[in-house]
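Extended Data, panel c. Modelled sequence:
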Amino acid sequence: MNIKEIRKNLTKDNENYKKSNYIYVIKGIIISILITMICLLIFSIILTNSNIQENAIFPVVAIITAISIATGSIISSIKISNKGIINGGLVGGIYIILIYILSSIFSGNFSLNFYSIIMIVSAVLAGMLGGIIGVNIKK
């Protein structure tokens, strides 16, 4: 085997590795969205049938979002042997961008406020933490 063949094989392996990482990130985002939808549905049923005050809604939604992103990042990073923090951060970042785009489309306006910034930061941090945990889980 000569140098050209070795380089060609390494390049091909690197391209396949990048493609599989993207697939894992997309799977993590989908899992996170599904978990969020299920948990928010349960929370809305609880809200409908109880007397929970409105000031409790944002913290619960933020916690549900963070847990969903961390779970999706863990699941997506289990198969990856390195760069869990980057992949998890991507899951959190892309997830929150998708949520803000969809909410802007449905509500008709887009605005960033203090709560939005908290959600963005917590989403990326939860994704990074989930990515670290996922990479370090023993297979």
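The chain has four helices and no strands. This feature is highlighted in the accompanying rendering.
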